[in-house]
Amino acid sequence: MALTLEAVLGIDPAQLLQLQKSYELAKAQLELRLDPGMSTRATLFGELPVTDMVRRGWLDNVTDTREPRQIEAALCKFFGVAISG
User: Fold this and answer.
1) Any idea of the CA torsion for 69, 70, 72, 78, to the nearest 10 degrees?
2) SS3 category, 15
3) Which of 77, 71, 81 is nearest to 51 (CA)?
4) What value, to the nearest 5°, has the Cα angle with vertex 22 and ends 18 and 23?
5) What's the CA gap between 43 and 45, in Å, rounded?
6) Cβ neighbours of residue 56 under 8 Å, at least 6 residues apart?
7) 44: closest CA among 76, 21, 14?
8) I want to staple 74 with a disulfide (CB 3.0 to 4.6 A). Which of 30, 37, 53, 59 is the partner?
9) For every residue of the chain, which 3-state class applies, written as one string?
10) CB 2, CB 16: distance < 8 Å
């Protein structure tokens, strides 16, 4: 498409592609709403076998593994450490 516009309108195709890239990135940034707890969950699930611990009943009061506060509280209780906060 950029090459066709260059042929018809004489516009630099590299400039058109740069504009398209900037537009797509800006659009994606507006549409994407990241879950603020995602990085915390990634750290917890990456470092510990949280899913297995919940399944085995080792972690109390974890009703939603997507809720990092529940997981953190249950892990602190399991390991006997104070909740930081």
Assistant:
1) 160
2) helix
3) 71
4) 115
5) 6
6) none
7) 76
8) 59
9) CHHHHHHHHCCCHHHHHHHHHHHHHHHHHHHCCCCCCHHHHHHHHHHCCHHHHHHCCCCCCCCCCCCHHHHHHHHHHHHCCCCCC
10) yes
Token duo for residue 13? 């195709």
Q: Coil, helix or strand for 56?
A: coil
Provide the token pair at 12: 């630099």
Rounded Cα distance between 2 and 16, Å, is 6
The length of the chain, given as a count of residues: 85
If we measure between CA atoms, which residue out of 74, 69, 79 comes closest to residue 55?
74
pLDDT tens-digit series, residues 24-50 = 999 998 888 777 778 888 888 888 899
Phi then psi dihedrals of residue 61, to 5 deg = 60, 30
Note the pTM of the prediction, 2 decimals. 0.54
